[in-house]
Amino acid sequence: MSAVAPRPGRARPLAVLGLAACGLAACVGSPKAPGASTSSSAPVARSAGLPLAVRQAIEARLAGALPPRGSEADAHGAIVVAVHAEGATTILTAGARTVSGLPPDADTLFKVCSVTKVFTGVLLADATLRGRVTLADEAQRHLARVKVPRHTDGPVRLEHLATYSAGLPWQPSNFRTKSDGGYTDEAWRSFLEGYALPYAPGRGFQYGNVGFALLGEALAENAGEPVAALFRNRLFAPLGLERSGFIGERADDANRAQGVDVHGKLVPLDLDEPSQLAACGIETSASDLVRFLGAHFDAPHPLHRAMRLALEPRRHATGDFDGFDVGLGWFLEPDTHRAFKTGGIEGYRSIVGLDLERRTAAVVLAADERIDTGMLFDGIFNDVADAALDPPASAASPVAVPPSAVPYDVAFDDGLRLVGIEAPEHVASGGEATVRYFYRVERTPRFEWRAFVHADANGERVRSNHVLARPMRTLAPGTLVEDVVTLRFRPDLKNTTFTLYGGFYRGDERMGFASAKDDKRVVGPKLRIVPSMPR
Question: Which of 358, 389, 514, 510 is nearest to 449 (CA)?
Fold first, then answer.
C-alpha cells in the first residue's frame, strides 16, 4: 500500500513532489532509481518494533537503494529510515560514514529543507488555538518590517501563506545563495515591494518558499522573538526534539550526514545557510522526526490539537500536485487518512508521512541525491501496511449482487473477481452518482491494494482513489465484497457522457487481470450528465 497513492496512469506523485520540494536555488531534481547496490554497507536495526520479516524487507530495500561504490563520495551516502507502527519505533540505517567517520545512526543530522514547512504549519495552528492569530488575519498585520504584496481583489492572509495559495512564487527573483554572496534583508524587502501577485490570494495554487518565509516572520513578530527562538520554544523543546535546529547552528557536530550530489560528488557542509528559515531551514535527525510524527497520534500531548488542525484539508492543489489536498504545509491524499511532505537541498533528500487511520508514520532521510527516496518511502509503507493487518475473517459476507447490476467476469491477479457493477444511467449536473462494484474473493489477496474508480469524458476526470471497506488481507475466500463509491460532478457539466473505469493499485503498480490492456483498467458502464434528473 502506497503511503502516497499515485493517480493511476499519471506520474508517481513522490517523483513529481521530490523535484518540487527543494528549498533553495541550489536544489536539483529528484534522482532516478539506481541500479542494484554493490555496497557492502548493510542496514542495521537500531531499535525493535516491527516484525522481523518486515524489518528484513525494509533492510533489503535500503541495501538496494545504495548506489554502487566507486568513488570517495560513495563511502558516504547515508540513509536513515524510521518507522512508527503499533506504538513502537524502528530505526534502520544504511550507507557508510558520517563526517566523523562513523556509520549513521538515529541521531545523525540531515538537512531536511522543505519538511520544515509542516513544522511551520503546526506553529500557525498552535498560535491560532492560543488566540494569538486567526487563519483569516491579513499577513501584513503581523509583518511591520516588510511590505506584503497585495492584489486589487484582496489581501494575503495567513492561511494563504500556509496553503501555497497566496500567489507568491517559488523563490524571490533576486535570490542569491550563500556561495553567490548570500541573500540580504534589503534584497528580500526589495523583492516583496516590487512583486505583483498574479491572482487574488486564495484563488490559485503555487508551491514555493516565499509564502512560508513570510509566514515564519509573521509568527515570530507576533510572538516577539526571532524565528529560530520561536521554533525552539514552541516546538523543539515541548516535543523533546534535542537534535533539531537550523542549518549552521551545529557546524561542529561530528554526527552529521555528508551530502552527495547527483554526480556522486561530496557537497560542502556549509554550502548554504538559508535565510528562509521557516520554509526550508531545519536540520534534524530521524529520531526527532519520528518523535514529531508520533505526537500526531498522542491525544494528551499539548501540541496534539494544533497538529490535527494543521492536517485538515483546506483547498485543492493543481498542476503537478493535482489530485492532492493541502493542509497547513502538508499534502493530503483525498479519501484517506494520509499526509506527507518531501524536502530536498543539494546533497540531501527527505520524506515524512503519516497514516492517521493505522497510526503509522515513516521517515526517509538520504544524504545522496542518487537515492530514489520516493520509491523507498512507498515500498516501506507497503511493507508495514501489509504486515499490520488481522488474519483473514472466516464469516461469509451477507452482500448479494442486485439484479440491477451489470454482470462482469474479470479475474484479477491477486484473488479478486469482479462480478458486477451497479451504476445509474443519468446523473444531474452538480449532483452525485453512487456506483457499487461487487467482487468475489477467490483467495485472500497477498497485498493491500487500493481501489480506483474514474469517470472520464473529453479530458474531464472525476475520481475516487480509496481503500475497500475491509482490509484486503482480512477477506476470506468465498466472500462477496461490495465497494460503494460516490462521484461528484461539477454543476457546469451538462449533456456529457462519462465512461467508468476501475481497478486496483499499490504504489506505482496496478493489479493485472487476464484481458487487461496496458492501463489495466476495467471499462465500466456509462453515466450521462443531464440538466435535471428525468422523471
Answer: 510
Question: What φ, ψ does residue 95 adopt, rounded to 5°?
Answer: 100, 180
pLDDT in tens, 473-508: 778 899 899 999 988 888 877 778 999 999 999 877
pLDDT over 80 (residue 359) = yes
The CB-side HSE value for 381 (13 A sphere, CA atoms) comes to 31
470 Cβ contact partners less than 8 Å away, ≥ 6 residues apart: 393, 481
- Report how far residue 67's alpha carbon sits from residue 236's, in angstroms, rounded to the nearest whole number: 34
Element containing residue 213 per DSSP (H, E) = helix 210-223
Asked whether 415 and 441 are in contact (CB, 8 A), the reply is yes
Q: Which three cell numbers stand for residue 230?
A: 520561536
72 confidence band (pLDDT: 50, 70, 90): low
Least Cα distance to 329 among 133, 512, 135, 90 occurs for 135
CB of 73 closer than 8 Å to CB of 47? no
Please state, in angstroms and rounded to a whole number, the distance separating the CA atoms of residues 310 and 313: 8
CA–CA separation, 272 vs 269, rounded Å? 8
pLDDT of residue 75: 61
The three-state secondary structure class of 361 is: strand
Task: Evaluate if residue 309 carries a pLDDT over 70.
Answer: yes
All structural domains of the chain, each given as residue ranges with its CATH number in brackets, are 15-336+370-387 (3.40.710.10), 406-530 (2.60.40.770)
Q: Which of 67-81, 233-247, 273-287, 344-358 has the highest mean pLDDT?
A: 233-247
> Of all helices (H) and strands (E), which one includes residue 485?
strand 480-488
Instruction: Tell which residue, 370, 324, 318, has the closest CA to residue 347.
Output: 370
